[in-house]
Amino acid sequence: MKSMIDIYDLLKQYGTYIYTTDRLGDLSLMEDEIRELYKARVLETQDYQMALLLLRQEATRLTTGK
User: Which one-letter DSSP state was computed for residue 20?
Assistant: First the structure.
């Protein structure tokens, strides 16, 4: 997993589509879904950790404007 597109694609595989007008809200919902997939043992630890890292980096980028 290397980018946000990979996270979108992963969630789509499991029938989860998250698109609202609130980008930070979308990231929060995606994080919740990733956590649920990990709890259900669908995701491996490395994919789970990388997805959370990418989501948090994107959230930081949006809030700081960089």
Answer: -
Domains and CATH numbers, the chain: 4-64 (1.10.287.760)
Instruction: Give the position of tokens 């709890």.
Output: 39
Q: What is the pTM of this model?
A: 0.90
**Per-residue pLDDT reduced to its tens digit, 22-54:** 999 999 999 999 999 999 999 999 999 999 999
Question: Which candidate, 2, 33, 3, 1, places its Cα nearest to that of 15?
Answer: 33
Alpha-carbon span 23 to 61, nearest angstrom: 11
Residue with tokens 């946000």: 4
* Contact call for residues 4 and 53 (beta carbons, < 8 A): no
